[in-house]
Known about the structure:
The structure is a homodimer.
Chain A: E1 3-8, H1 16-29, E2 35-41, H2 43-47, E3 56-60, H3 74-77, H4 82-91, E4 97-100, H5 104-114, E5 125-130, E6 136-139, H6 149-165, E7 173-177, H7 188-199, E8 204-209, E9 221-223, H8 226-250, H9 255-263, H10 265-274, E10 282-286, E11 292-295, H11 301-316, H12 319-335
Parallel strand pairs in A: 1-2, 1-4, 2-3, 4-11, 6-9, 7-8, 7-9
Antiparallel strand pairs in A: 5-6, 5-10, 10-11
Helix pairs in contact in A: 1-11, 4-5, 6-7, 6-12
Amino acid sequence: MKITIAVDIMGGDNPASELALGAVSAARMFAADGLELILVATPEAAKTLPELPANVSVRTAEGVVEMTDDPGIVMKDKKDSTLVLACNLCKEGIADAVVSAGNTGALFTAASLIIRRIKGVRRAALGSVIPLESPFVLLDCGANLDATPEVLLLYAKMGAIYAENVLGVENPRVALLNNGTESHKGTPLYSEAYKLLSAEESLNFVGNCEGKAVPFGACDVLVCDGFTGNIALKLIEGMGKFMSKSIKDIFHATTVAKAAGAMTFRHTKKLKKKLDPAEYGGAPFLGLKKPVIKAHGSSDAHSFFSAIKQALMYCQGGTIEKITEGLAKKTEETEE
Amino acid sequence: MKITIAVDIMGGDNPASELALGAVSAARMFAADGLELILVATPEAAKTLPELPANVSVRTAEGVVEMTDDPGIVMKDKKDSTLVLACNLCKEGIADAVVSAGNTGALFTAASLIIRRIKGVRRAALGSVIPLESPFVLLDCGANLDATPEVLLLYAKMGAIYAENVLGVENPRVALLNNGTESHKGTPLYSEAYKLLSAEESLNFVGNCEGKAVPFGACDVLVCDGFTGNIALKLIEGMGKFMSKSIKDIFHATTVAKAAGAMTFRHTKKLKKKLDPAEYGGAPFLGLKKPVIKAHGSSDAHSFFSAIKQALMYCQGGTIEKITEGLAKKTEETEE
Lengths: 336, 336
């Protein structure tokens, strides 16, 4: 089966040529799986690309959405941008999925308006796969700042389907991020959501999860509103960076410490991977009609490669179909 | 000047005798500062105490508030408990401050009802001093789950006074915990609070702070609602534990790694301190008429010592007076 992914190589912190390297690696690695890539670049950037394998083509657009652009203006002022073109390729059926390292809000806005939400999905969410002790999907990481109990239930279902199909977790454990483990804990949003998630038989709901349990593999899907999720995601990222820096400082403190650093190099490298969300390549939008993966803004070739791999698995897993069939209908019933 | 602190040595995870050790150390260390301690224990626990210095006395109550007790029942069913007695000693003017390692919610409820809030302070908050790159006060850590923009402003003022008087930070930098740095970011609660904090001349408001900047000394006072703050505090704690465990694992992986661990022991120990909120001993309640410090539930003698030291500094700093004089009046004007 052929799977075509539109890859926006502009708009990240690194130059298009760096991201193209990751894309080409992915194209070569997964050629046998039927992967085809359409790199979307400006005409100038397109000239800097290396020789491309047969399953990689290039499309161009004049504009680039900058990190600082207000997402609200993208569909007006940046219609002729690589990001919007990548979404349009998906809408027109030329591509099956989109990957971009650009402006998160702009990607969400463009993808929501162009690719559109699955029928019955009131809110699409931004998930993030976080490694730590064992990888889990955190959602919503900021697509929508507010939520209702029904929306948290929707996130839970979409997250569980994603964890099962893309991360390969059987019967994923779903938890609510909360300020205590008891069922009545949290704001009314969370205590009400607790009731809905408990009552939903299709979910393996394991209850509330406190922040201190998060790093230790307490669940496979961690559900919260976008404000809380964004703060949690960035705190985890910040603490990971703090830790990596602190370890580096330890191993640079003295000559003896430098030797110790060399002695444990492989182990600390492994730990660094556990602390780095870029290891999983990107954050999936859930609830849209096609897979859209937001690669980390600071993606290098390696993490951009991972993001494309994740998009491929998102396509292969039948995740969209499962969300569309199972959940969309159910959500409509609940809400309308 | 004599300063008397009522110390509830029951209700923590460790036995009263362990906490008493920390209390006795503090009493000896700060005898010259006029510190006097009243240890509050059950009659049974009182019998297990070692010989006490002259500036330590003992009072007893029959009951103990357990960690699992619902805070709502404390003032009904546990009136004759060590926690309630400690608060009563404060109310009656026998003690100047309270320290307890017991049930946080129960301590907050009892202290709010017995010691009461400063006039004009609509909500008392639970602060927490977090070490990391440079120590900062995070508040509210869960005393109240919801907030208004005015309440966040109140937290900001109280937190700044605490940071200045107890942590010794001159002109403390105050920030809002938010999902982006721009002024319009966050839920309406946060974008409105941003306006109030910017307009408040007595504050050194440095804007919004994202989770990824939190560990790196971005501010001295970090303000948020109690739900978000509790999740953030526990995430920081959990990530700290995850890292300590990971470093331990690295240094136990092989014989070579064990040698490396020995070579960097002092440095990793220093890092562990940075990751451990117990290092600062306890979490201050802010907005009550007397200093109340919640020591960590898992406090050992060392961290309980630090909590008592913090209570002493809370008393010495004139923090309560400054909150009462400056801010309480202002808050009344705004709200009534």
